[in-house]
Amino acid sequence: MRELGIGLIGTGFMGRAHALAFNNARAVFELPVTLKLAALADADTERAQRCATAWGFAQAHGDWQALINDPKVDVVAITTPNHLHYPMAMAAIAAGKAVYCEKPLAVSLQQADAMRRAASDAGVVTRVGYNYQHNPMITLARQMIANGELGEIISFQGEFSEDFMADPASPWSWRCEVEHAGGALADLGSHLLSMARYLVGDVVSVCADTQTVHAQRPAIKGSNDLKPIAVDDQVHALLRFANGARGTVSSSWLKHGYKNHLSFEISGTKGTLAFDQERLNELRVCRVGQDGFQRLLAGPALPGYAAFSPAAGHQLGYNELKTLEVQELIMALAGQGADGTDFEAAWAVERLATAIRVAAKEERWVQVDAV
């Protein structure tokens, strides 16, 4: 088998999730290539070495460019803060290497456009970490919609909310800086926008409102030194889809009680389906003639599930979804799949998010293709 060398940049929450996913993928799937965890990079050299040893990577680098230059690395996985996605991905593409980048793709539409064009010109495989779409229950929902089980789709109502920034005393971080992140819309809402496009299709126009509820936060935990906040804490938008459906999306990182509330309801002329990521192994469906919702449980009959569990109701988790995403990436690199979100699709998500920001700023409907 051909060997693929994996290079991972970043050792935070997402870096660990990627490392687990690559290790899990080669353990649970019969892959057409052999995965080698070739190198790991972090700005903290000691942490890079410690994580490389713990996660099974052969080499540690204190400089991400050294990882990209490493001839043993074929795939560059980027799990750094958002503002670093652009320079790292562009360097990897210039080196002719595949890129697996966390979302959102970039901190500006201009950067995202340059990234997708460079990847296309270079002919390299790219994927972006919209892992929730790899849930077998989301695959089932998409199939039901495509098969016409809901009839003509007329509405999408979605929300992605968490509470990790609900406390105004929560300190400033890179997520609070426009140049580095993009607020709740970029951090959470991008997942929801990608999901809406994946299930219902292109969005043609938007109207929106955004709000920064906590205009200042402590510079560090417990500090009386306050730093101004310019990114949104919550966003609400109206959507018009190309197929005629209407939609709403909202996202907040201030909603007490929610930990990973990526939820949606999709209604058609023959029924409605509903999903909540906090109950990610369930899909609720109501068809014409039913008095209420039927609960569908994930099980081994759904693609991807049986690799982890032979029995229904035993449930997959976040790391299994990441592993399914990595499997799709590897199949694409082997020329045997094209289902994931590449840079082109991720750019379309960024264009939609940009249209929402313009609509909120200018208080009007905005055509997405005019952005």
Layout of helices and strands:
Blueprint: E1 3-9, H1 13-28, E2 34-41, H2 45-55, E3 59-61, H3 64-69, E4 75-78, H4 85-94, E5 98-101, H5 109-122, E6 126-128, H6 136-146, E7 153-161, H7 183-199, E8 203-211, E9 216-218, E10 226-228, E11 234-241, E12 246-252, E13 261-268, E14 271-276, E15 282-287, E16 294-297, H8 318-333, H9 343-362, E17 366-367
Parallel strand pairs: 1-2, 1-4, 2-3, 4-5, 5-6, 7-12
Antiparallel strand pairs: 7-13, 8-11, 8-17, 9-10, 11-12, 13-14, 14-15, 15-16
The count of β-strands is 17
Number of distinct helices: 9
Order of helix and strand elements from N to C terminus: EHEHEHEHEHEHEHEEEEEEEEEHHE
Main sheet attributes: strand count, strand direction, barrel closure: 9 strands, mixed
End-to-end span in angstroms?
45 Å
Protein name: 1-carboxy-3-chloro-3,4-dihydroxycyclo hexa-1,5-diene dehydrogenase
Domain Gfo/Idh/MocA-like oxidoreductase N-terminal: 5-130
Pfam families: GFO_IDH_MocA, GFO_IDH_MocA_C3
Keywords: Oxidoreductase
